[in-house]
Amino acid sequence: MILIKEIYQEDYECCFKLDSITIGLWSKSQWKSEFKKKGVKVFALSLPRTIIGICVFHVVVDEAQINYFSILKDYRREGYGSHLMYFSIEKCKQLNLKKLSLEVSEANLAGNKFYEYFDFLTVGKRKNYYKNGVDALLKEKLI
Ligand SMILES: CC(C)(COP(=O)(O)OP(=O)(O)OC[C@H]1O[C@@H](n2cnc3c(N)ncnc32)[C@H](O)[C@@H]1OP(=O)(O)O)[C@@H](O)C(=O)NCCC(=O)NCCS
Fold first, then answer.
1. For the segment 23-80, what is each residue's pLDDT rounded down to a tens digit?
2. What Cα–Cα distance (Å) separates residue 97 from each residue in 62, 78, 80?
3. For residue 124, what is the enclosing H or E element?
4. What is the DSSP code string of 3-48?
5. Largest CB tally within 10 Å, which of 37, 74, 112, 113?
6. Which residue owns the Cα nearest ligand 1 atom 29?
7. In whole angstroms, what is the distance from residue 78 CA to residue 40 CA?
8. If you ran DSSP here, which 8-state letter would residue 108 be given?
9. What confidence score (pLDDT) does residue 131 get?
10. Residue list, ligand 1 pocket, CB within 6 Å
11. Mean pLDDT for the chain?
């Protein structure tokens, strides 16, 4: 059975662990401070014994940004990412938000296909945004 629930700062270590074996975006202290930001909610997608996906959802005025979104490698292409995304879109509707936005590396083919599947539109580009010189695409979806 899969479950999506909000998790809080005491769970920062398991977020760091999942991140370190997936995309390696943040350090432990960055995870800890992410939980403290105003408007940040962290959602975990779990199977009975393990967290297999995390979404960091940041409400800013009347929209939300996805600051982090990842599914464990062994569980990809099984619809789990979609569960978490449908949940995030539903959360936007419940909170009466107008837009969901995010940044994704232009080189991330899976990520780009995934957001295309959810009808996100590319609305901008940050040149040389990542350390390796790759551009970030700014994507958004009207709710
Ligand atoms: C992007 C990511 C979250 C997708 O999660 P997932 O659980 O594999 O996604 P789903 O199984 O729900 O896929 C939904 C649809 O997205 C598209 N998609 C997902 N992964 C894809 C891939 N590797 N190649 C092509 N299309 C893909 C497909 O259309 C897929 O539908 P289908 O399987 O019926 O063809 C996952 O690959 C991941 O965690 N990647 C690393 C982190 C990341 O890149 N995050 C996003 C950018 S920050």
1. 999 999 999 999 999 999 999 999 998 999 999 999 999 999 999 999 999 999 999 9
2. 5, 28, 23
3. strand 121-126
4. EEEEE-GGGHHHHHHHHHTTT----HHHHHHHHHSTTEEEEEEE-S
5. 112
6. 117
7. 27
8. -
9. 82
10. 22-23, 69-71, 76-82, 104, 108, 110-111, 113-114, 117
11. 97
If you take atom 44 of ligand 1, which residue's CA is the nearest one?
Answer: 111
Domain 3-142 has CATH 3.40.630.30: yes
Task: Identify the residue whose tokens are 């996805």.
Answer: 66
CA distance 56 to 69: 7
Could you tell me the sign of the dihedral formed by the alpha carbons of 52, 2, 12, 31, in that order?
positive
> In the structure, what pLDDT confidence band is assigned to residue 126 with cuts at 50, 70 and 90?
very high
CA distance 105 to 84: 20
Q: pTM score, two decimals? A: 0.97
